[in-house]
Amino acid sequence: MLTLLQGELVEKRKWIDNDELMEMTAISESTPGPIAINLATYLGYSRGGFLGALFATLGVVLPPFAIMFAISMFFQNLLAYEVVQYAFMGIKCGVVFLLCKVTITLLKGNRKDWIAIVIFAVVASLMVIFTIFAVSFSAIYFILMGAVIGLLVYGLIPYKKEQKK
Fold this sequence. Notes:
globular
């Protein structure tokens, strides 16, 4: 989803830049609900106020709702076909690719100093370890840890651009 949003909002329409997308994504991830809806609402509000938020949210919610409603009427019958099961296996591989692509794209646009690299490495390592060992740990905690570390390092400690050199 983020790859599609990045391509549409940043590259094609140029409504926002990568930094704004990353900020909106962080806010959208930290609020309840699907990221696409939260991001659409946030972007709609920032571009068109209340009506922008309303129509952006409806534009994101209504088409998938109609499609899922139609699919749900025939879903059990579709699963009986072996071809559909194979298609779902291929879709899973495509989703993994899209997640990797958006991660790389967002990393390219991110600040590249030692603390950002350390935060990324620690969080990525913990996520992999927790997934392998089936430890239940919400992604929100990773976001909150990153926010606290970012506040401590960039907000409380005097940080100068000269340190980047």
